[in-house]
Amino acid sequence: MVRVARRSRLAERCRAREWTQESLAHHLEVARNTVARWEQGSSTPEPWNRRPLADALGVSLDGLDDLLVEVQTEATSDWTTVAPPALDDIEAIELIRRAEVSDVGTATMAAIDTGADLLCRSYTSTPPAELLIPLRAYRGYTVGLLDGRTTLAQRRKLTVTAGWLSLLAAICQIDLHQYRAAALNLEAARSMAVEADEPQLVAWVLETQAWQALTDGHYRDSLALCQAGRDLVPVGTSAHVQLTVQEARALARLGLPTDTHRRLDAAAGSLDRMPRPEHPEHHFQFDPRKLVGYTATTLAWLGDDHDAAEEAARLAVDQYDVQSIDGRWARRLALARIDLALVLAGADQPDEAVHLTGLALDSRRMVTSNLWRLAEVDRQLSSRYGRTPGVIDLHDRYVDVHRQLVGAPPPRQLGAGAA
Questions:
Q1: Domain edge (last residue) among 77, 109, 136
Q2: Is the pTM higher than 0.90?
């Protein structure tokens, strides 16, 4: 689905009156990102700002209302750029199965593979709650086929596919903080991987558990899970690269710079030996661009080289920003902006940090499992620049997003990595 991006006519009037976002914000005593959101049409001026803004632009209050009317601009992609398979597709697969001689023929297996592949490719561009619906249906159908007549090869293939779908379901549930359901699906994925003797799937299960441990602040547990997963898969595979960079992030949280840089170098070396993925949006195929983003996060947490961290973070933003028209990368762009904001907040550049975090919030791509990253930037900015209007405004917006996703405001104090 494609939506039309919108902005107000306010920006054109500001430029005609030679107001920059910074100068107008200073004149009105508001944050620059507040003016930016007025110009983008994502929010409107508060009642007490309307008259001063109208005066600054040389218009009446009615004229100001006209400037704030949204106008269509370039098209941008919504969550569902890579759409997951529809539930109707399962009916089509069932028709294919019935047309074949055996319970599970070649065409049926191919159709299931296609559906599972699309689900894995849809993860970054579909809200997790929405993706769970076809995920459960496809897994249920796949497991149901195991009750029919199958060859050993078919049974193994169906078991592995059901395992991958269970793992992806667990990841979506972690995104939604449905930890009990996620734990059950992780165990189901692990059991199927063991039954089918599929080490790649076991490694990805361990990586998912390591990611969850990292976000929950259990860094040594995350480190151990990464090391266990790496031992199962060869260098030059997606799982190996992912586990290695995840290990680097855990080491950075533990404040071990030498080991952290060693693991980042190892991840780069493993990536060099990996073939370029056919579908970089596939959750279980490591996109080479992700290494830049992971490096930025790791260096930001490590804090031993602000210049290197900023360089990596800006590169991560740029590589997704140039493709922002493509909704596949909108979530990664939002997270890259949060990484850069964290670096800049620690390098006495609060204005840009506030602006970037605001853009991440405006993306509407935040899910519950991202809240700890927003909390980290909010905590950094609030502790150092808490009295500035822009930071106060950003904190209020973060609280609103937290309330929307969780149903409650964030606790007063959040530890690093807490959600």
A1: 77
A2: no
